[in-house]
Amino acid sequence: MKQSIVAQVTELNGMSVGQLAERWKALYSTEPPLRNRVHLIKRLAYRIQELAYGGLSEETKANLRNMAQAQEPKHKGGHVPGTRFVREWNGERHEVTITRDGFEYRGRPFKSLSAVARTITGTRWNGPVFFGLRKQEQAA
Q1: Which helix (H) or strand (E) holds 108?
Q2: What is the per-residue pLDDT across 1-58, written as a single tens digit (0 to 9) for each?
Q3: How far is CA 139 from CA 26, 36, 134, in A?
Q4: CA–CA separation, 99 vs 22, rounded Å?
Q5: Phi, psi of 21, deg, nearest 5
Q6: Where are the domains of the chain?
Q7: In what order do the strands lie in the sheet with 84-89?
Q8: Could you read off the pLDDT of 116-139 as tens digits, one per residue?
Q9: Which residues pair with 96 in a beta bridge?
């Protein structure tokens, strides 16, 4: 007799990461994207239920994508407000957050990532290059 859905999901908690990875391969027919125990358990529990009860309809998936896009307006660089860029410079960690109006660095607003890079280095830098979003040759 086949195990109940509840039993299958409960069983995941007692599995090792290696066993979870094997279960992933059996249910998804791919290698797991990472070997994080909590992530594997959550995704496997969802997959077990999805196979038993059916997944979301294409219409529902499209509606969810549309709602998510409407709730998260993109910044002109294509990144969502709240995204953070981190760079170490001269042994110091620098963190920049994208806002709806531009960028925030150490509580100060900036219109461009290049202005932030200039503040950090004291010289003119291409902001996306400085933060590793673009390679030097692409910026030229």
Answers
A1: strand 108-110
A2: 578 999 999 999 999 999 999 999 999 999 998 889 999 999 999 999 999 999 899 9
A3: 44, 36, 7
A4: 41
A5: -65, -40
A6: 5-53, 67-131
A7: 84-89, 92-98, 103-105, 108-110
A8: 999 999 999 999 999 988 876 554
A9: 85, 105
